[in-house]
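Key idea: predict the complex, not the pieces.
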Amino acid sequence: MSELLKRLSLNQITLNKLSLKECVEICVRHNIGWIAPWRNKVAEAGLAESARLIRDAGLKVSGLCRGGYFPAATAKERAERIEDNLRAIDEAATLGADVLVLVCGPAPDRDIDAARGMVADGIAAILNHAHLSGIKLAIEPLHPMFAADRSVICLLDEALQLAQKFPASDVGLALDAFHIWWDPFVYDKLKACSGRILTWHVSDWAVPLPGIFAARSMMGTGVIELRRLRAAVEASGYLGPIEVEIMNEALWNRPADDVVIEMKRTFAEYV
Amino acid sequence: MSELLKRLSLNQITLNKLSLKECVEICVRHNIGWIAPWRNKVAEAGLAESARLIRDAGLKVSGLCRGGYFPAATAKERAERIEDNLRAIDEAATLGADVLVLVCGPAPDRDIDAARGMVADGIAAILNHAHLSGIKLAIEPLHPMFAADRSVICLLDEALQLAQKFPASDVGLALDAFHIWWDPFVYDKLKACSGRILTWHVSDWAVPLPGIFAARSMMGTGVIELRRLRAAVEASGYLGPIEVEIMNEALWNRPADDVVIEMKRTFAEYV
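Result:
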């Protein structure tokens, strides 16, 4: 197996109809060494059982999806979000992950700047527990098309500035080609991220987009310069697992083994 | 009529099922002083007839939509795009517009940086004709969700850097709240645009989005801080007409007079 393929990690949402157990089994069947579980699937299988399934299969966990969603209208709700993030940190530790991905969440109203402040406050509130648990927090800048409903943090340099409020040993970035490819200054910004990149996600941007949330496509079917971006990510010091994370209705409706075979082929060819 | 309402301009795509003649008539009926025609509608009505309709109704033209689409795979195609932009400049002059809006176009392949270079080359190629025709070129940074299919120019600071390659008397920016609201640095960037803003467009970003191209909503139904953005645009020196530009299927299917009444009300309340 090539060095690149050894870095391939299956982000579970790519096969969203499968249970965690089925995802683990398909990784084993196709010789994939890494997995990135989602919390809803872990909850369905049970946390201890999920950890056991992954460990017994010999898989490594590239990251847990996801914490975040810090902004909320009331102090009580914001405290609940923080509690949920503390649980997510515990789950990540139990699963053997090093990284918890943070999708920071939308604003509860029109005041997006205030919501950005709530994100910074939320990360500060969970930092110590993450540190003591051995979990790094990975802020994910989402594509600006999700600024109103999924993340007020949507520019790479914005996410980096936020991460830099905290020690590099505790807080970094979850970068996804789908979210950042279009940025005219992306290569300069990636240089500035040196030492802060905690995970790298790939998919592609096809024209026309197949949807809004389920907007992503298989590598090679879109316009993203995946190889050039990976080179820049690596030049900034990230050489860890590379997650394939594709939300796509048509893909979810295909036989999972076929998807995995195509994923491995296009990963080798385009990533 | 309030000073603000005197600045309202009907961008023709907001009533996309109407002809130019019908749009002119509805402006007169509702006491709207400005219109922003689209070239396809002007072509349907005929250029000279369009100019006559607008002039006879006493309307002013806030801008013509649109030139641009400079990148293409071959030199021959790029030359054709430039020819088309020269015609757009002539049309803008005939219609009595001061401003031609440039939607810069997508890349013909995966090389988005090369396409950005083609945009700069294209503007340089039409600059002299625009200058001699008394038409200012307004580069419109589009929301990054359109980076693959409508414009490789999608950040406000990127558009400003591009405009600054040319004299401020000839090239500036067409800014649209829908495209720039999410930018975490938007207010600093707007400050830097002082003297370069040539037109200001409004609509809203509703959750969930009603579509991808037809993604916009009536002012007040979404999350955009329209009033705060207008204040920043005005602080940068732009005090001209404000176009309502809403692509929205449901809106297009409603009676046009109802839409215009709602547009005037929400413009006064939220813009």
